[in-house]
């Protein structure tokens, strides 16, 4: 049915109507009528169903065109009163636009926020505005938009500074006051008003219409049709796959169509899936409903009359039209706002805008989007109406939110999402709070939605159903709204604002009361808990509210009266929560050290305890704020503190802290992970500010108002330790209490935790209000303590610090004062290191350290101290003073109960063993003692007169215990302990304490006697002892360093053992060679003054003396490389490559038919071979590989997981270095050559060779049973006699051992298989060719690499590449033996024919289409198959030289034909020799011109020509030198071991070529002239020259990865305008840039999947096959991540080359710091690519991180 509809034309009826229709006349008629709405409705009723929705697949452009002509045009005529284009242009001209930018963001577009000036993080700029703003120079953050929202440029409330960019700078100062309607005529206003109100009402009527089969009054069509649509609606319940599957069944469509339907439904919210009569549609509907109703609620489907759908389509069109029209003039926009917000006849909340909002959740996605857009561009752009709209929005708030909570669409598709646009505007937010009581409304609405409570009215999340959980998730967005409202604090408080805020605050307290004590836990004894209780919901709520709670406090803090009122309210809420908190609790009296206190008995280990105490914590926060105020300093009696009951305040926070301590002590193990997680979050940086930190403050507040002895007794009692310390003989604990080891252990931990808590209560003073500190002191101290653990990157620090509601930590302001920045290298990241002078702030018992942090920091700090040669003692730091309200806390240190506790622990510590005390316990006691002493010291220093002697810690600790115990004083105990051998580790600290005591005593005495103190008061003895110790330490340190060095050397040796040995061997070999070569008697030409690598004069190795011995990495046995020995192989990796390609557009070849014999000079596809250089016996490797195979099979059966290598295609990891490999190269010795002195010259040689090939031709023809050939021809061929000594019937002996033969086949077949991507077939004639071209390609790519890295040609290659190249070339020269002789011979004949024309060879390419180096390598390597038949004494060395000469001449010609010398450059005068060369090159050029009948440009002089020839041929000479070096083993002359001058001469000498290469031609003119002519007459040459754009020119430049912009946001911007090429204008979700060719792809998406070799693959994978022969390097722009792909199954992510100012990458773009290109890192990626290491890199990454293996790379 769909097909039948496809080609439908616009109905002819309409065509005639369209021809007769006049928009002008219609508009004129409308001007006359009385009832305009009725008239317009009639018009719409008539035309809309005729234009829209006449079935599926009608061309939408037609619809748009007709709608424009028949519907919009009359309205525009009416509105303008004249030709619309003219009228609108006039409007636009007279418009004075407002200064708001208002650019609406597309998905993925970059947005910028200034961290210094934005009012809040939701204030953003578009890229255009940002670049023209002052914020470019500030600290900014960059993000990608999720779509929606607009640019805030020009909004003065959004920016503290620089609200305008250059473009939006206002030119009239009072533009906001001006009425935009002023310069519009009254008639125009009236007409606009008429048309807007009719159209908007029409759109609202139709979009909110819920009947499927009829239309609103006045819109019933004159003739009613009988067609229907089956409309499918979007929901968030069913998956893509479910929908696609169902549609295929229900409407009989293909999968592709179904995907299309599903995509549209997902995007627009609905899509008609069938068109026809009612029955037909109803049938489809029932199938869909039946198919989707099984588990969930069914998909929503409606059968709708086509006219209803038609009007809905046009209604959307009309809204769009309104949006377009108002762009012409702010006046029109204002009229539209007025129309929209005008109250309807039904009274309150009945405007058209209200109607739309209230129906929001009933509309489909597409409709919502359209009208939200219109709201954004109208109501939110007009300052006056934005306010009115905000009021309406607030009035409807509760209803809108309830609708949203019930709806299932994401919030971005809900009208509630507009809240951010209004609530974040400070003036609007305050207006809404005061006038609409918005704060209270939001909070009440929120609380109303969480109705599930326990008996005490607290939230109960535990038994949530799935639906309640869903609702809970959605209702959280209200917290976001509350945050917006609070985000900017008022600077001045109007009375009414204070009133309404406090009302909101009270509502907020109601919310917190529902949380106070929720999710209580009870310790599980005996059995483990059966089911982990739900805890996440409560913590989610806590986390979401964290910033709100903080902001509430900040609001309160900004006005003293508000603060005091809020404090009172909070206190009464807390009292209410705990009313009767002693109910049922048994009152008890505790007494210790002569003090006693009344409290209750409460065992946390037996009764309920909750972690959630938000009311207490809010009060703690307010208390600290109150303590900061003027009042607290001056008139604390005015504060509402008298109502406080300190024991009540501390009770619940204390219980919570004890719970944590007990968990650490292992008492709550049976409660499972739920509790572990809760306590983790309680301390976590995301929650601790409003949880743990506030509990501590509450304890401090309570304790400061209590007798410290009472406080400590209550603490002991809650810790369940009271009985230990209260008993008279507690000091003798160890002797009695040995009953249960576990209990002892438990109590030890509890004592440690309790002591730690005391340290924190007295020592944590860095909260403003608690201590006398600034806000920045707190953050500084946090950073210092993080950096005390280790140096950290910026992002690590950010993660460790709490963020405020603006996502700021405040770190940047202070970081430089406490840390030094160290820049990153090519890897790693920038690090902050603690400034040495800040180390003194270090507090081992910093309250935010976890136990692990603490021990790491302790170790690090001690190490630093040791390194600096200091004492490694870590005494407590000097602390700031307490604020007055908290001042009394210091007395805890010197109170009797604490001293009792400290004394007891010291007493226990006298006994070395027994486990009744712990090192940590003692360490904490010593720390507390240290704190007491420092406190006293500070008191002494700050007191001007001696009146302040109330704090006398030294006195207290010097006092012995009272009767009857008569225990020694603490000081006495310490003096004893300092000599105890079992306390070695604590001696430093004890000594420090004693020293400090002595110091304080002298100070006191001095001040008492008013004499200046002599601070250097330690005794002689002490210094001596210190010296001794320092010396001991130094020696120990030296010994340690020596040990470490030896260990390091040993492990390094182990690691490099094999490599080093190999190098050693090679070294000694070369020495050996050097000595032997000098004494060679039979080759007089090898005098070492001229090193030549090719030709009869070449350097010859010393025959049998040349032994090469290697070690197998698997069995460690040594083996000599011999022709008849055991085969040794090199692990190798073969891959296809396009790295050097000069033509990425060349279509991929057909692997079965492709003839690789001649490489095109564009090098578009090559085969690269690399190796890690590790050598094995072939049989050892085979055993290893079989084992890998077997293991892999077992693993796949068992686990069905992938590995980083694919065993099935022969891949394995090198057993030593785990480098990815897929074959092995056999190692071969150098071939021996004989050399007779009498060799033919070039001409003779060419002749002989030609004869030889002719003879072979006929021989081949005879052996091939080819009936097509005529007998005569065969006979005539037979006629030519082979030259002397050429034995056609000779069969050469295969000299190799069987294992080497086997390996020759193995490697040959692998090269063939991988290079051509075919199935292995060792018989294929292309096997040897692939080996030769791989050899040539690999040498070429290495030569390029050396040029790019500016390294010399010889001597700079790493061993592994050296070994690889030499084995590759030697293999190349031997591989003919493994193939059929005749095949290799025929290859040779074809190759030679490219240079020496041969009538019997067809399809020879022209010389422009041949890469000459490839040709040379193939000729040289295939020649042995011919040479072996020759016994005439002609040397193969001669042949190699002549091949080189011929190919060089051909290359010269090739370069001359393709070079366009640039004559613009100034010529320079050249010297004599150069002059000759210039002339000769000119001559040759002119000869070529004559051959080509002047198709070449005329050249006046040879200067440029010579230079381009020399530059063009240099790479060829270099690669050739490498090739012959590895083939013949001739050492290279020293000039080639360095970069720079003399290279040319050295190369020519080494290659036995004249340094004026042109001589090659002139010396053999007679022979070469006809060849030249032959080359030029090839039709391909003319063709190539004609089409000069595709010509490859020489030298070929190295390929680069594409240029990247310096600023990352330029890339984001580029990607944001990229649309998916397949789904017509849709934004791509994962735009991905190919770094090789610059193509942007739509990755990781259904739409762009294609089929590749039978698999569905994503755009990136598909692209790699076209662009990179299977290897790809991409940049995922949204993620800021580099992606490496290889094949379909391998990939890894790699650090992007973009860094922020802190030297860090931002993978995932989460932090949003500006990113800039780091050239070094980009070059590193480029180098990986150029050296063909991408696949290897992926292999290593996947081995290191197994999760990478599981990623579905092929769909990226
Ligand atoms: Zn803008
Ligand atoms: Zn702007
Ligand atoms: Zn700024
Ligand atoms: Zn071995
Ligand atoms: Zn290896
Ligand atoms: Zn796509
Ligand atoms: Zn590409």
UniProtKB/TrEMBL annotation:
Recorded catalytic activity of this chain's protein: S-ubiquitinyl-[E2 ubiquitin-conjugating enzyme]-L-cysteine + [acceptor protein]-L-lysine = [E2 ubiquitin-conjugating enzyme]-L-cysteine + N(6)-ubiquitinyl-[acceptor protein]-L-lysine
Domain UBR-type: 99-170
GO cellular component entries: chromosome; cytoplasm; nucleus; ubiquitin ligase complex
Gene Ontology MF: a single term: zinc ion binding
SMART domains: ZnF_UBR1 (SM00396)
Entry annotated with the keyword Phosphoprotein: yes
Localization: Chromosome; Nucleus
InterPro entries: ClpS_core (IPR003769), E3_ELL-like (IPR042065), E3_ligase_UBR-like_C (IPR044046), Ribosomal_bL12_C/ClpS-like (IPR014719), UBR-box_UBR2 (IPR047508), UBR1-like (IPR039164), UBR1-like_WH (IPR055194), WH_DNA-bd_sf (IPR036390)
Keywords: Acetylation, Chromosome, Coiled coil, Isopeptide bond, Metal-binding, Nucleus, Phosphoprotein, Transferase, Ubl conjugation, Ubl conjugation pathway, Zinc, Zinc-finger
Basic and acidic residues composition bias: residue spans: 1019-1035, 1275-1292
GO-annotated biological processes: protein ubiquitination; ubiquitin-dependent protein catabolic process via the N-end rule pathway
UniProt feature coiled coil, ranges: none
EC number in record: 2.3.2.27
Keyword Acetylation: yes
Annotated metabolic or biological route of this protein: Protein modification; protein ubiquitination
Family statement drawn from the similarity comment of this UniProt entry: Belongs to the E3 ubiquitin-protein ligase UBR1-like family.
Protein name: E3 ubiquitin-protein ligase
Annotated source species: Triplophysa rosa (Cave loach)
